[in-house]
Design brief:
By secondary structure, the protein is mainly α. The chain has four helices and no strands. The chain is 45% helix and 0% strand.
Length: 73
């Protein structure tokens, strides 16, 4: 199991503070489950089950340019 350290100033950051509750939860989920290159292969059903987030699409729109979609092909 990988050990990760989270910036202790994250909750004081203005950008992070302006996110919705689901936006904050997704961001923390993302940084704690992505690989070493920052890539997360999203399993929508599992993510929604583990986090309780109802609409992944709404959260990804909220994060906007902070996320980049990479396709295999």
């Amino acid at each position: 199991m990988a050990k990760r350290f989270i910036d202790t100033n994250m909750f004081a950051d203005e950008w992070f503070g302006n996110l919705s509750k689901d936006g904050k939860l997704f961001f923390v989920y993302y940084i704690t489950t992505c690989d070493h290159a920052g890539i997360l292969k999203v399993n929508k059903k599992l993510l929604e089950f583990q986090t309780g987030i109802k609409s992944l699409e709404t959260v990804t729109k909220e994060l906007g340019d902070c996320l980049i979609t990479v396709k295999e092909n």
